[in-house]
Design brief:
Blueprint: H1 9-12, E1 53-55, E2 62-64, E3 76-81, E4 87-92, H2 96-107, E5 113-119, H3 129-143
Antiparallel strand pairs: 1-2, 3-4, 3-5
């Protein structure tokens, strides 16, 4: 004779269906200000454009940041500012400091500065966060006129909106 345990709600759910709250590390001790800040813990911090606003170097267009960002922000759209005055708009799912390191290793420019423009929060109802990130990147490329020859972006994909 064998004994079998009854079914519970926990046994019916998989670990992927159980939502866990991920606590983000606290970087600032005071109140959070809407701005871009270095994390002060990586090699990319000296290249951060600090502040509440991003000003396009050639057009003068000002972007007012809507959140606080650091080098450890993920799912972000960022602007790279070249010393020649052109900008590149990019997106990444990894930490900004990792992505900027990849850019700097291929470009080898110490004057290259960057700022996070926006992050894409997790989608409600399980939407595709990466698709939304790519759509926002295209929006920013168009908004800031970062497409070549006015900027450093080569092209963008409008099929993301279909």
């Amino acid at each position: 004779m064998s004994h079998r345990r009854g079914k519970t709600i926990g046994s019916a759910k998989t670990s992927a269906q159980i939502k866990k709250k991920v606590k983000q590390p606290q970087i600032f001790l005071g109140t959070r200000t809407v701005a871009m800040f270095p994390c002060y813990d990586c090699n990319q911090c000296p290249f951060v454009l600090k502040g509440k606003d991003f000003v396009h170097p050639t057009t003068g267009y000002t972007v007012h940041l809507q959140n606080n960002f650091t080098c450890i922000s993920k799912y972000a759209i960022y602007a790279l500012v070249c010393p020649c005055g052109l900008i590149y708009i990019g997106e990444t799912t990894q930490m900004i400091k990792s992505r900027i390191l990849q850019h700097r290793s291929s470009i080898n420019l110490d004057q290259l500065k960057f700022m996070v423009l926006e992050t894409v929060p997790p989608m409600k109802g399980g939407g595709d966060r990466e698709l939304r990130l790519k759509q926002r990147e295209v929006w920013w490329i168009h908004k800031l006129q970062a497409l070549s020859p006015r900027g450093l972006n080569k092209d963008y994909d409008l099929y993301l909106f279909l």
